[in-house]
Amino acid sequence: VQVVDSGGGMVQTGESLRLSCAASGDISNEDIMGWHRQAPGKEREWVADISGGATTVYADSVKGRFTISRDNAKNTAYLQMDHLRPEDSAVYYCHRRPFWAPRGREGYWGQGTQVTVSS
User: Fold this and answer.
1) Can you tell me the distance from the alpha carbon of 11 to that of 49, in angstroms, rounded to the nearest whole number?
2) Count of alpha carbons within 13 Å of 54, Cβ hemisphere only?
């Protein structure tokens, strides 16, 4: 299984970015797809999840500003990030895991994509 995330970049406060996470190989539409992020000097933190049935869950810090979605036909998940803030700056990682696996465990990680928000 290969997971490739992309779409990061440098933006100003209040602007938007859309991250993509493309998976290939032995995968299932029942897999949960999620995004995590890690800022310099901080632990990796969970951002959002989407189930195979498109149920979504968000961290409080991004609720109302970020939207996670998926296109099972393309084996791809997206993270639409609006109203970005400097504190959203981090390397964002896609994670695809079996529906039975705990968050952050099992499954496969993307290589990470850098998001930088300037004030």
Assistant:
1) 24
2) 6
**CA–CA separation, 28 vs 67, rounded Å?**
22
Residue pair 72/52 in contact by the 8 Å Cβ criterion: yes
pLDDT at 106: 87
The set of residues, in sequence order, having a beta carbon less than 8 Å from that of 53 and lying 6+ positions away, is none
Q: Specify the pairing of strand 56-58 against strand 2-6.
A: unpaired
Q: From the CB of residue 92, how many other CB atoms can be counted at a distance below 10 Å?
A: 24
The answer to whether 116 touches 17, Cβ cutoff 8 Å, is: no
**Residue 22's Cα: distance from chain center in Å?**
11
Where residue 25 falls (left for φ over 0; alpha for ψ -120 to 50; beta otherwise) is left
Do 115 and 5 meet the contact criterion of CB atoms below 8 Å apart?
Answer: no
DSSP string, 60-81: TTTTTTEEEEEEGGGTEEEEEE
User: What pLDDT, on a 0 to 100 scale, did the predictor assign at position 104?
Assistant: 84
